[in-house]
């Protein structure tokens, strides 16, 4: 009797051992199925709890999550962040990303142990099933936007290139995918700041205020859902960029209560205000400090010459004393933006498509700054604006202790050349005015056809 019992026990043990791999597989597929395709439906996980999974199996699954360095130093910059997965674009020509949970992650969540703000190789990631997170790990509910950039989320230009793919992702979800939190990384190092302008733009675009994860709490953090962009806009084509810019422009205007259909009547701030009939709205967006114009009054006078010829309104403003929404409002009613090279130029995003940009640099940039100085030409290209060229200050007092022309001049104030500015403005303004008149006529005639 005892012997039989032992045998039976033996058989049971054997049977359960044989059953373990299929059972494990079943668990894997169950969790996988349960979590995949949930990306764009963040809330609805109400249908049924998972069937009870034997505790021993869960323990094994928990232990199977392996933490690897977030920054894989054997890899190139585009892939060192979570290097064991390939990023993909869906649809093609969008920026490449990683989604958790997803079929590619076998239904697993992304878990991060990220104590370091200095060394990305000291931070780590693992994949784990929702119902078998590593011991001590904390489940962070909702959708996380995880951004790794080789640049900087506090610099408006660089931060914008990191933000665009998320805005596009959100738009493609039918505006349902709203981030509960952001996890920001620079080469795998934790970052906890985003420029205020970007954070407001993000909030306008997704409807969710930016909350940045600090990773200060004890335990690894596992995101209920996460989308990772680790190479800014890499993979995104021009058409997709334009579409994302249109989306952000539209959302920012709505957020700020700017009625785009009446933007031609809204006028700028300051001197442009009230001139509703102006055929052309010109905005001088000044900087304070580095790369400001030496003589703003003289520069303003030159461009105001267009008033004499008629049909133009000139608004002058300092970017630093406008709120985000004041910037959106002003640029929504601007046909030509005149500004010195610098972060405030990112506001071109808010102009109507086909509007014009004129850019100014101190001495030294043209000679030595290389391709990076053209970022606002690129931006004009992917926001659908016309970059009308640049003026580089041609001469200046040398720096006695600094033979490097860029280092010496980079942040200095910018002079002006009345003759050059006036001729350039006349050309740009005339063409812009003509384009505007043509598109207004086209709009009117298509309106007639509809009637
Ligand atoms: C990623 O892509 C490379 C090259 O296309 C391939 O060799 C590698 O196996 C892929 N890795 C994974 C995890 O799919
Ligand atoms: C805006 O800022 C500039 C420079 O920072 C300053 O000179 C100017 O007076 C300010 N204008 C207003 C209206 O506050
Ligand atoms: C922009 O201008 C081009 C021609 O210069 C025109 O074909 C296009 O329709 C314009 N786009 C918009 C949005 O006005
Ligand atoms: C100012 O611009 C005009 C027209 O381009 C040019 O002929 C002149 O040499 C410039 N003056 C200076 C001081 O650079």
TrEMBL record:
GO function term, MF aspect, one: pentosyltransferase activity
InterPro entries from the UniProt entry: Glyco_transf_61_cat (IPR049625), Glycosyltransferase_61 (IPR007657)
Keyword Transferase: yes
Record membrane topology: Single-pass type II membrane protein
Alphabetical keyword list: Glycoprotein, Glycosyltransferase, Membrane, Transferase, Transmembrane, Transmembrane helix
Subcellular location: Golgi apparatus membrane
GO CC terms in record: Golgi membrane
Domain Glycosyltransferase 61 catalytic intervals: 280-358
PANTHER family (UniProt xref): GLYCOSYLTRANSFERASE, PROTEIN O-LINKED-MANNOSE BETA-1,4-N-ACETYLGLUCOSAMINYLTRANSFERASE 2
Protein name (database record): Glycosyltransferase 61 catalytic domain-containing protein
Organism field: Panicum virgatum
């Amino acid at each position: 009797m005892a012997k039989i019992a032992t045998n039976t026990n033996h058989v049971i043990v054997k049977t359960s051992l044989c059953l373990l791999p299929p059972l494990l597989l079943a668990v894997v597929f169950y969790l996988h199925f349960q979590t995949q395709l949930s990306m764009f439906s963040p809330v609805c996980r109400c249908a049924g709890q998972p069937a009870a999974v034997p505790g021993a199996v869960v323990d094994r699954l928990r232990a199977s999550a392996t933490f690897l360095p977030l920054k894989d130093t054997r890899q190139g910059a585009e892939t060192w962040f979570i290097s064991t997965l390939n990023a993909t674009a869906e649809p093609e020509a969008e920026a490449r990303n990683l989604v958790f949970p997803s079929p590619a992650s076998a239904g697993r969540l992304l878990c991060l142990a990220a104590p370091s703000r200095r060394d990305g190789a000291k931070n780590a990631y693992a994949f784990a099933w929702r119902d078998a997170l590593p011991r001590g790990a904390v489940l962070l509910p909702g959708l996380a936007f995880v951004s790794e950039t080789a640049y900087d989320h506090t610099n408006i230009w660089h931060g914008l290139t990191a933000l665009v793919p998320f805005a596009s992702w959100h738009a493609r979800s039918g505006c349902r995918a709203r981030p509960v939190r952001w996890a920001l990384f620079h080469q795998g190092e934790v970052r906890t700041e985003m420029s205020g302008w970007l954070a407001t733009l993000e909030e306008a675009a997704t409807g969710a205020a930016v909350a940045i994860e600090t990773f200060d709490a004890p335990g690894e953090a596992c995101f209920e859902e996460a989308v990772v962009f680790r190479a800014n806009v890499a993979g995104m084509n021009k058409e997709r960029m334009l579409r994302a810019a249109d989306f952000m422009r539209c959302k920012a205007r709505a957020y700020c209560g700017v009625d785009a259909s009446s933007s031609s009547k809204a006028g700028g701030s300051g001197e442009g205000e009230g001139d509703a009939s102006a055929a052309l709205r010109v905005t001088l967006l000044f900087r304070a400090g580095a790369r400001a114009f030496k003589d703003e009054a003289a520069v303003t006078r030159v461009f105001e010459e267009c008033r004499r010829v008629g049909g133009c309104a000139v608004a002058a403003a300092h970017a630093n004393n406008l709120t985000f929404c004041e910037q959106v409002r002003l640029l929504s009613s601007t046909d030509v933006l005149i500004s010195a090279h610098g972060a405030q130029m990112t506001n071109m995003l808010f102009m109507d498509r086909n509007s014009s940009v004129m850019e100014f640099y101190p001495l030294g940039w043209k000679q030595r700054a290389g391709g990076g100085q053209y970022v606002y030409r690129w931006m004009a290209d992917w926001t659908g604006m016309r970059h009308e060229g640049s003026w580089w200050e041609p001469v200046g007092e040398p720096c006695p202790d600094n033979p490097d022309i860029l280092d010496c001049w980079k942040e200095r104030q910018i002079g002006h050349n009345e003759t050059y500015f006036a001729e350039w403005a006349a050309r740009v303004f005339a063409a812009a005015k003509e384009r505007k008149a043509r598109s207004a006529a086209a709009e009117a005639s298509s309106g007639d056809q509809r009637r």
